[in-house]
Each structure stands twice: as C-alpha cells, then as structure tokens.
Write a structure and sequence with these properties.
By secondary structure, this protein is mainly alpha-helical. It contains 4 helices and no strands. Helix 1 packs antiparallel against helix 2, helix 2 runs antiparallel to helix 4 and helix 3 runs antiparallel to helix 4.
Length: about 140
C-alpha cells in the first residue's frame, strides 16, 4: 500500500565519519564575552561622539584592551561617529545609548562571571554603574 522510502531522509543523523567542529564551553564563553565587550565599546564610542567626556575615553580604552586580550591580541574595530547635528533630540539619544550600554555591560558581567574573568567582570560592573548614573542625568558632565 505504501511505497518504501528510497532515499535518505533529511532528518537522518550524519554518519559516524562526519564531525561537526565545536568549541569548548570555555572558548564559547570567551567568544561571547569578547562580543559583548566589543558591542559595549561601539556604544561607548557613539556616546563619546555625542557627549565627549574623559571618563568615556578612559572606559573605551579599557574596553578595547579587554577585547584585544580576549581575541588573542587583535585590536577591535572602531567606528568614527559624526558629532551631533542640531536637529537631533540629543538628550533622548544619549539616554537611550546609556541604557543600551547598561544592558550590554550587564550581559558582559554575566558571561565574565561564568568564566571567572575577574578583570572583565570588574570592568563590566563599573560600566553598568556609570551608565545607570548617566542615564539618570543624560547631558550633565560625567
């Protein structure tokens, strides 16, 4: 009544000779942490363009150092952002960026704690605190 299946199903598991490359848990956490810190660095660079501050400059350098350390010495890509234009609602944009940076720092903190990376965890916690304070007062000096 039914015709037998003549070809392999797409749901059939791969044979014993094929191996999928996998990263170890430690390598995966390192990869995730570098990604979160690189994203935080990008938001920090954008904030530096909108609201220049020596504290943000220092934080950007520390973040770049940590990303380079996690990526085996290769420096992170950095973007140059134009200064604010007159028509932008600067206060709302800066507040939104601080909130985004706070969220990214929180993610980095969770991953850093999972991999027991004290330097990255301390930096992420400091950035969380700084961005939480800055979001409460968006255009005041840092």
């Amino acid at each position: 009544m039914y015709e037998p299946i003549r070809s392999k199903s797409v749901h059939t598991m791969a044979g014993p000779g094929t191996e999928v490359p996998r990263r170890s848990r430690e390598a995966e956490l390192e990869f995730q942490l570098a990604g979160h810190l690189a994203a935080l660095l990008a938001v920090t660079d954008e904030l530096r363009a909108l609201a220049p501050c020596a504290g943000l400059d220092e934080a950007a350098e520390q973040l770049a150092e940590q990303v380079a350390r996690l990526r085996g010495g290769s420096a992170p890509a950095r973007a140059a952002f134009p200064g604010p234009s007159e028509q932008d609602d600067r206060r709302a944009r800066v507040t939104a960026l601080h909130r985004r940076a706070h969220d990214l720092a929180g993610r980095a903190l969770v991953v850093a704690a999972s991999r027991a990376d004290t330097r990255a965890a301390i930096l992420a916690a400091q950035r969380m605190e700084a961005h939480a304070e800055a979001a409460a007062r968006p255009l005041s000096p840092c």
